[in-house]
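Cont'd.
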Amino acid sequence: MKATIERATLLKSLSHVQSVVERRNTIPILSNVLIEAGEDGSLRFMATDLDLQIVETMSASAVETAGSITVSAHTLFEIARKLPEGSEVLLDAADGKMLVKAGRSRFSLPTLPRDDFPMIAEGDLPTSFELPAAELVNLIEKTRFAISTEETRYYLNGIFLHVADDDDRAVLKAAATDGHRLARVTLDRPDGADGMPDVIVPRKCVAELHKLLGERGDKNVLIDLSASKIRFTMGSAILTSKLIDGTFPDYSRVIPTGNDKLLKIDPKALQASVDRVATIASEKTRAVKMALDTDKITLSVTSPENGTAAEEVSGDYKSDGFEIGFNARYLLDILAEVASDSVELHLADASAPTLIRENEKSEALYVLMPMRV
Amino acid sequence: MFHAYGAAMSDEAESDALQRKIIHIDMDAFFASVEQRDHPELRGKPVAVGGSSKRGVVAAASYEARKFGVKSAMPSVTAQRRCPDLIFVKHRFEVYREVSRQIREIFAEHTDLIEPLSLDEAYLDVTDDKQDIGSATLIAEAIRARIREVTRLTASAGVSYNKFIAKIASDQNKPDGICVIPPRHGPAFVASLPVRRFHGVGPRTGEKMARLGIETGADLAGKNEQWLCEKFGSWGGYLYLAARGIDHREVKPNRIRKSIGGERTYGEDKWTEAELREALDAVVDIVWERIEKNEARGRTVTLKMKFADFVQITRARSLDRWVKDKREFSEIGHVLLGDQIPVEKGVRLMGITLSALEGVDDEEGEDEVEETTPVQPAFEF
């Protein structure tokens, strides 16, 4: 294999693929990126961690000899990063080495044969639909913070996607929860998603997808999936992931429907207040107490080590006064996702799940379990 | 008693300075055997140690009971169904702890590298044994003989060159048996094992392996690491090495104790203040005895409660000095309990713990220093 590629193109492509590669690997070939130079003048980069695979195709400046090879993804990325802007990079693989040459720099990297490089067998992906990249970004940002990191509950380590019919409206829903908070987004069901299996998209795939989508603007993303695999096609980049093999809990059961105490408040003001009083909260629990009174909310924190803090915020509240506690971080995570100038908190009592949303029409909905303070 | 594979490992182990000699000692049906030793009328009968109440579980079963399929950790109700003549006896942890202390003294005559796994089980690294016996097999036999002499109980031993194989070997000729797996037989021994005997392979993984055509260690050894990682995730690396009889884990002596505590699950949920206070007194009695036995001093008292819906809370209080005596320990427990009364849900379990112990790094003790901690409950899916 012998090909030349512009440094900027190489760097962009490698920055995508190298983040899929795990930093520490027991299997050497998994540290490598597969590079394929085609007769048609294309260069294909591919990386995998056995659960997630990315393939990105770029145009080379020139392909002298078609062929393929694998080299350390991180090393090649670091080299590309440090090469001067505007350089043309020669990649020349021969005799178990790959020569990287640009300007006056020369590197010789060890290689592993391409035949040892594992590929995820996609199998049949019967469900196929498209979503605008911006809509997918929105879906991810409004749910990903609630994904659990607890490995014992692996079935919560991703975003749950499923189709449903809400009062005759055909929808696609995305949900994530860590058992303390739940985030859900409801979208109109895209054409082709009818009858799709319920799937749980793993956290790492979500993170990589989010990075790639940032560069897609308003263009569409093609999504193909089966019960065990999902593939996102974004122009020159294709991300394929295994899905989490587990059952997502029936989360609809924790969404309260009868919470009769309504607080309407400016999310930015509440966010700033919570953030200020939380300065005092202990790092471990981050508990903030919220005392509700007619049109007056008092936030307070008491910490045996750090002292106390209190702040009043005005809001629209007409029900009986009471006190409730929340984890400040959880509350801030949710408030950060509310873009409008009003947010609704539907409360029941100090120990019941609280529903948070912009209004009854908003596509995103959050449920937060209060803390006992 | 017989030696599997015949060979003592000393001859060739000594030729390789890097080869370790590991013994895994495991008492036979420990709790049940102690009860049969002390109560002659129980000998030869199916005995289970543990509560026979609705929520009780079997802590240990005698070999007579095991023939009926009674196993430890089985609900008592199930055990009674499998073996109608099963005799339940109450556990006497003080006695078991005393025996445990005796056997650890015996181990200490041979090595200081002792890693207890529980009261009745330990790994010993005898690569450099104190008495210069040199042969791990002879040391294991000496330990077994001495345990029998001192405690009138039997133990089984596994002797090999790493923890993984030693542990499997101790189970090989149970009860009252020994099994020696020298390095040159290690791979063949592992190859012959059903995968279910591998540490960590439970019924579900076992089933998955069977579906993939893996029944024995040999089948496992036939797969490459990449394949194993694809099928079993990060665990694949362990399986790859284990299937080749490789295990580099060291014997780790003397884990530092960070807390001393105990808890009780109740047959009937407790509701009233009188019931709860009485129940707390009972746990305090047991735990304080443990604290005295360990001659421990600590600054933090933690009360744990589990409710009928399995939601669990802990409440802690720390002093800037040692908790002075049982009365103070009990008082703090009762104050923490008082904050929870009246309870909104029945209480199915209560426990109390002393932590921030003397001798434990202050930095780690610091974790415990928190007044009544706010608790983040979870959704009930």
